[in-house]
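Input sequence (73 aa), recorded before submission:
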Amino acid sequence: MAAKKENAPLKNWAIYSGIAIQMGVIIFLFVRGGKWLDQTYNAGGKLYTVIGTLAGVGLALFLVLQQTKRLNP
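Predicted structure, C-alpha cell format:
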C-alpha cells in the first residue's frame, strides 16, 4: 500500500506534464499550418495564422478539460 501512495504524486506529475506537452504540440502545429496557408494562399496577410492559433488554443483547451475530467471524477 505504501508504494502506491508514493507513486501517486509521480504518476500525476507525469500525466499533467504529458497534457502540457500535448497542448503545446497542438498549438504549434495549428500555428505552423496557419503560416503555411498564409504563405501559400494569402500574400502578405496573417489571417490564417490568427485563425490557426485561435483554433489550436481552443482545441487544446477542450482536450485538456476532457482529460482532467477523466482524471478527477
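Checked by second reader. Residues 2-41 form the longest helix (40 residues).
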